[in-house]
Amino acid sequence: MARTRYASDPGLVARMGATMFLLGVVIAGFATGLVYLIMWFSQARHGGGGGAQLNVGAFIFFAAVIGIGSALASYYWSDKIALATSGAQLVGPNDGPEARRLHEIVDRICAMADMPKPRVAIAPTSVPNAFATGRNSKVAVVCATRGILDPNRLDNSELEGVLAHEISHVAHKDVAVMTIASVVGIIAALMVRFAFYSELFGGGRRGGNGNNQSAALLIPLVMALSIVFYAVSFLLIRLLSRYRELSADRSGALLTGQPSALASALVKVTGDMGRIPTKDLREAAHLNAFYFTPALRPGDGLATIFSTHPPLKRRLAQLEKISDQLGQAAIR
Fold first, then answer.
1. Which of 138, 234, 281, 322 could disulfide-link 259, Cβ–Cβ 3.0 to 4.6 Å?
2. What predicted TM-score, i.e. pTM, was given to this entire model?
3. Strands in 57-118 per DSSP E
């Protein structure tokens, strides 16, 4: 964690550490499973089917190269990718009333957190949301949409709570954490795709003599193994993401000292999603992992279950608890 005044939650840190440990176990298990399958197949290679073994080796190589390459691209250029995807433009404090209001609040948050000020951007969408990204404070950018900057939607204390939450992600280096965590999922997903297309075009049976059942089984087994590890890693990454969102809520609320303002912003923004046209929500959905709250209608079934963010009820319960703790501390 960067040295800022953002508070840390030992309980959440422990749960995030346990999740990262489980992801490490998944990576080790996935690698062990692939090695075992290849060794098993090598023992049967004398019966033919060298093409299947070659295919699996190619799957592993290209999946690793693409997976690690995409993770490195996300790590180094997440700010550029997010800005380009959202259509956001960097703004200065003199670029209009919206930009001035946004800069003033970001300046105040950075002063309270004792951290460098990130670049500031505005995205031209009516969906009320915000995000911050960047591998460190030097290249970080915090972006608010025109929808959330509408003065009739959030007051300054509510907007400050939202932006304090987002800047917390930069202070806690969440881009680096989530990038590292996602590598195994990307590789497993690519392995599934490669194996599927190889089976579709008969790649697992090339070079065999028709009697070598191991050759015919190798690629389907690799695909099945990859599906299992992709599913497990997907669920663990979603769990880790939800923990990090709860951590950002807590850190932002403690920094500003106004958990009720952040709770109010959460309720307003989540409620406003129900009034946003479906087309606009779909266009914004690809940035859900970055957003303050996902661009989903409240109660969107499976989309909520597999969301990168915890349920609104859980976030509000945590903020209410923080508010009670701050109230008790003030009385003492």
1. 322
2. 0.85
3. 89-90
- Rounded CA gap, 211 and 325, in Å? 71
Determine contact, residues 312/298, Cβ cutoff 8 Å.
Answer: yes
Residue 311 CA, chain-centre distance (Å), reads 16
Max Cα–Cα distance, the chain, nearest Å: 82
Contact 15, 235 (CB under 8 A): no
Considering the candidates 158, 160, 166, 245, report the single residue annotated as catalytic. 166
Q: Could you tell me the two tokens for 111?
A: 């002063």
Do the beta carbons of residue 82 and residue 290 sit within 8 Å?
A: yes
The three-point CA angle 182-188-194 to 5° equals 135
How does pLDDT run along the chain (332 residues), one tens digit per residue?
445 677 777 777 788 788 888 888 888 888 888 888 777 776 655 544 455 555 667 777 888 888 889 888 888 898 899 999 999 999 999 999 999 999 999 999 999 999 999 999 999 998 999 999 988 888 899 999 999 999 899 999 999 999 999 999 999 888 888 888 888 888 888 888 887 777 666 554 544 444 445 556 777 888 888 898 889 888 888 888 999 999 999 999 999 999 999 999 999 998 887 777 877 777 777 788 888 988 776 665 555 567 889 989 999 999 999 998 888 766 66
144, β-bridge pairs: 122, 130
Phi/psi at 7 (5° precision): -75, 155
Whether 146 contacts 127, CB under 8 Å: no
Q: What share of the chain is helix, strand, coil (3-state, %, to 5)?
A: 70, 5, 25
Residues 6+ apart with CB under 8 A from 228: none
Cα–Cα distance measured from residue 24 to residue 11, given in angstroms and rounded to the nearest whole number:
20
Distance CA 41, CA 20 (A): 32
Q: Is the dihedral of CA 145, 147, 152, 157 positive or negative?
A: negative
